[in-house]
Specification:
364 residues, alpha/beta, Rossmann fold, Dihydrodipicolinate Reductase, domain 2, seven-stranded mixed beta sheet, six-stranded parallel beta sheet, 13 strands
Length: 364
């Protein structure tokens, strides 16, 4: 098969470092262009020290003519609000684009402007963008030219809730409460007092409770799954003193308050039976961040508090891989007609075995 010629815009970002690492191990990809305004003409090792001497390309300035010559597909890892300036002209050239920013995730431009405090520069393209959560939109992703790669928190939350919402098991009149904690890598390379070691070490810091910009993304996708019923989410994110990972604890009420945990487990295992990167914990076990770091897995556990009649879903991912770079590679594979596991951790092992059984599932 002819190799995909892939370029990355915003190639000096933290997510791009992991993306480059994954693409270098991909048998069907050739990295042909790395764009960074801040690191122009510098070697890749100056932005990503673990790649010193591994990849010979230098960072280059944004040049549309050069990108057209060099690339079949482009990953855009620019900050929110910047991708939408360049992506329309890439699409006009017939280049496939996977946008890792939030610029094309929210379908309503007014909602986007409300939460991101900037008017959308390309609202006419929003309807063309496919929300890139492979476990939900595999068929749409296959034929897409533009993928809106999901946010890290929404990935953990939407995958955690999809079976319950899709099967109409949730009382949608009640607010869903999401309490998440992310590693410090979620802040990217940005420097602030809140990300200094002295302030994050031995600490858990809540932030943007009820105002985090991933909230409308969660509500949009969950509402679509619920048949356009309005799903409301109270989102309380936290940052913790570890590098990678997200743990989302999700609290909700079910329509049937006598539901058994074994029935919930059966619903989840059936829903994700053909999804290689989702692992369901057997009843009475809860996933942990350490189970998924450095992988593209999402591990999910579910329990039902009989006393309070409340369901709790636990969902964990690596925020940089399944929450960003790994999911982007998974989307690229699907768009290109490749095995969705190609270039991702444990691909060969996953291809050799069947979907895990109940006993094997998620050794929590």
């Amino acid at each position: 098969m002819k190799k995909i010629k892939a370029g990355i815009i915003g190639a000096a970002s933290l997510v791009s470092g992991k993306l480059i690492e994954l693409l270098l191990n991909h048998e069907n990809v050739e990295i042909t262009c790395l764009v960074s305004e801040h690191f122009t003409h510098k070697s890749i090792g100056q932005a990503h020290s673990h790649l010193k001497g591994v990849q010979g390309l230098e960072f280059e300035p944004y040049d549309l003519d050069q990108i057209e010559k060099k690339c079949d597909l482009v990953f855009s890892a620019k900050p929110h609000g910047e991708s939408m300036e360049k992506i329309p002209e890439l699409l006009k050239l017939g280049i496939k684009v996977i946008d890792i920013s939030a610029d094309f995730r929210i379908k309503n431009p007014k909602v986007f402007s409300e939460w991101y405090k900037v008017d959308h520069a390309a609202p006419e393209i929003l309807k063309k963008a496919v929300y890139g959560l492979p476990e939900l939109y595999f068929e749409k992703i296959k034929n897409a030219q533009l993928i809106a790669n999901p946010g890290c928190y929404p990935t953990s939350v939407i995958l955690g809730l999809a079976p319950l919402i899709s099967l109409s098991l949730v009382n949608t009149d009640d607010v869903i409460i999401v309490d998440s904690v992310s590693g410090i890598s979620g802040a990217g390379r940005s420097l602030s007092s809140n990300t200094q070691f002295i302030n994050i070490s031995d600490n858990i810091r809540p932030y943007n409770v009820g105002t985090h910009r991933h909230t409308p993304e969660m509500e949009q996708e969950l509402s679509l799954m619920a048949g356009n019923k309005s799903i409301r989410v109270l989102f309380a994110p936290n940052v913790g003193p570890f590098n990678f990972g997200i743990a989302s604890n999700i609290f909700l009420n079910l329509k049937n308050n006598k539901t058994a945990e074994k029935d919930l487990f059966a619903a989840y295992t059936d829903y994700y039976k053909d999804k290689p990167f989702v692992r369901i914990c057997k009843p009475d076990t809860i996933p942990e961040i350490k189970d998924v770091v450095n992988t593209n897995f999402c591990d999910i556990g579910v329990c039902f508090d009989k006393r309070l009649k409340c369901c709790v879903v636990f969902s964990v991912i690596d925020n940089i891989i399944k929450g960003a770079a790994g999911q982007a590679v998974q989307n690229m594979n699907i768009m290109s007609g490749l095995d969705e596991k190609e270039g991702l951790p444990y691909k060969h092992a996953l291809n050799k075995k069947k979907k895990p059984t109940e006993i094997e599932t998620c050794a929590c």
